[in-house]
Amino acid sequence: MADRYTYLPLIGVFIMIAWGAGDLVPVLNQAIESVGGLRGVITEQRQRITLACGAGACLLACAALTVNQIEYWQTSETLFTRTASVTKNNYLAYNNWGFDLSGRGKVQEAMDKYRRALEINPQYEDAWNNMGFALASLKRYPEAIAHYEAALRIRPNHTEVHNNLGNALADIGRIDDAIQHYRIVLGQAPEHADAHNNLGIALAMKGEYAEAMEHFQKAIRYKRDYASAHSNLGNAYAVQHKLPEAIAEYRESLRLNPYDAQAHNNLGNALAEQGQFEAAAYEYELAIKLNADNPEAHFNLGITLARQGKRDAATSHFREALRLKPAYEEARKQLAAIEGRPE
Predict the structure, then answer these.
(1) Contact (Cβ atoms closer than 8 angstroms) between residue 310 and residue 281
(2) Which CATH class is domain 76-156?
(3) What is the 3-state secondary structure (H, E, C) of 155-175?
(4) Structure pTM?
(5) What three-state secondary structure class fits 223?
(6) CB neighbourhood size of 93 (10 A)
(7) pLDDT, tens digit (0-9, with 9 covering 90-100), for 9-67
């Protein structure tokens, strides 16, 4: 049984020990005198010394045990490793161990722990869900979907599984199916900010911008400082050519998360469309600094530099966009045009 479950029950035991120790000392001293053939009254000072020695020994023992126990509490991994080693068929420990590994980017190792949890308890829906999430992170979407569906057979109303399943379905283009699962989540948890954001993305992909914006706004209402929802709301405004509103949302998103390369790129697009080329170029440069392997940011910066008459710099970015994405036809056309040669 976990130590935390013994904290309250042991209070009474420790009270008994503390109160009883003082009464036991005279009895113990009398026994010592009897064995040693000693006579006389045991002084109060001697009783105190005896108690102090006993307490000191207990504290030393506790300190030694604490030093040993602390080794198991260094990290989540050391804790769950220890838990799995001293318990039998502890599927919770293996699942939590996997969750910790996944959070640190060790997805394959995490999947091994989830499999072990499911071998022990095939009815543990959270392990099915976590395995599905790990598979989705590797873009193995059909397998991920199968695991989410297994979790829902065990617990049909699991909101997080429905949300995750919706994401996996959206990633393979099954937008209508994804929307159904997001709506199930919101039917059970109307303030689920992530589901509102995800549903908004799916609706925007279908061109249903008005309803999409409503869900982005609800996501922001229910989850303060939701940078992604602000960025997505900016995208919805930008598609409708409402550039001042889009720029405001992108700036708010970047205030909350300055390291979002895509938001910098999108802000650059909106600024460029307004003719603010220097400001746009600055945002593209930030996007590239955060993610140098983004061909779109290189292409957009190339276009902006070309508009400013900076042909050599523009050429460099068109070439980099093609290096990163050899099939990038628009970059190929722009490079040919700027170099004055046929495509």
Answers:
(1) no
(2) mainly alpha
(3) CCCCHHHHHHHHHHHHHCCCH
(4) 0.79
(5) coil
(6) 22
(7) 888 888 888 777 767 666 666 666 665 554 444 556 666 776 778 778 888 888 888 87
- Which residues fall within 8 angstroms of residue 260, CB to CB, at 6 or more apart? 227, 228, 231, 253, 254, 290
Tokens of 177: 């199916």
* CA dihedral over 247, 249, 252, 257, signed as positive or negative: negative
Q: What is the pLDDT of residue 119?
A: 96
> What is the C-alpha to C-alpha distance for residues 270 and 164, in angstroms, rounded to an integer?
31
Amino acid 191 reads: E
Please, how many CA atoms are within 13 Å of residue 136, restricted to the half-sphere of its CB?
22
- The DSSP line for 18-34 is HHHHHHHHHHHHHHHHH
d(CA 53, CA 343): 93
d(CA 319, CA 326): 10
Instruction: Give the pLDDT confidence of 111-164 residue by residue, as tens digits.
Output: 999 999 999 999 999 999 999 999 999 999 999 999 999 999 999 999 999 999
How many Å apart are CA 50 and CA 126, to the nearest integer? 54
Determine the 3-state secondary structure of 189 from DSSP. coil
